[in-house]
Amino acid sequence: MPTTPSKQLDTFDNPMPGRDYTIRIDIPEFTCLCPKTGQPDFATLHIEYVPDKLCVELKSLKLYVWAYREEGAFHEKVTNTILDDLVAATQPRFMRLTAKFNVRGGIYTTVVAEHQQPGWVPPPVIDLP
Fold first, then answer.
1. Is 52 a catalytic residue?
2. pLDDT, tens digit (0-9, with 9 covering 90-100), for 14-53
3. Which of the following is catalytic: 10, 20, 34, 85?
4. What is the SS3 assignment for 29-60?
5. Is 115 a residue whose pLDDT tops 80?
6. Which residues share a beta bridge with 113?
7. Cα 74 from Cα 34, distance rounded (Å)
8. Active-site annotation holds for 41
9. Candidates 41, 52, 55, 127; catalytic one
């Protein structure tokens, strides 16, 4: 296999550091294991962030997500851990991670975790006609 799972998140320089803009990444194939039963949990991860000096490199993000496939983790913990790791790697102005877990026992779980850089003020929302 040419690549293997890795918890290393690589970055590259933000090409437009003087502008607030949003990067949205959807990861529809996230899997981890239920820490109680060992059964797989499936989720779609939605990442939204306003970069500061760095952006996350997507291949490393794919390998990072893959690294959770054999780990037991509660939904709340894994969501917050992923956000913490992404924030540590990129130091964004703002980042939101929404983890939408598939149904298990008739229950859907969605966990939303956010980070905001101290002092950063988001630009006002503009509603177009």
1. no
2. 999 999 999 999 999 999 999 999 999 999 999 999 999 9
3. 34
4. EEEEECCCCCCEEEEEEEEEEECCCEEECHHH
5. yes
6. 97
7. 7
8. yes
9. 41
pLDDT, one tens digit per residue, over 46-105 is 999 999 999 999 999 999 999 999 999 999 999 999 999 999 999 999 999 999 999 988
Rounded distance between C-alpha atoms, residue 122 and residue 7, angstroms: 30
Banded model confidence at residue 1, pLDDT cuts 50, 70, 90: low
> What CA–CA distances, in Å, run from 37 to 34, 86, 107?
6, 28, 16
Tokens read off for 110 = 């969605």
Q: Are 107 and 127 in contact (CB under 8 A)?
A: no
Residues near 68 by beta carbon (within 8 Å), at least 6 away in sequence: 30, 31, 32, 78
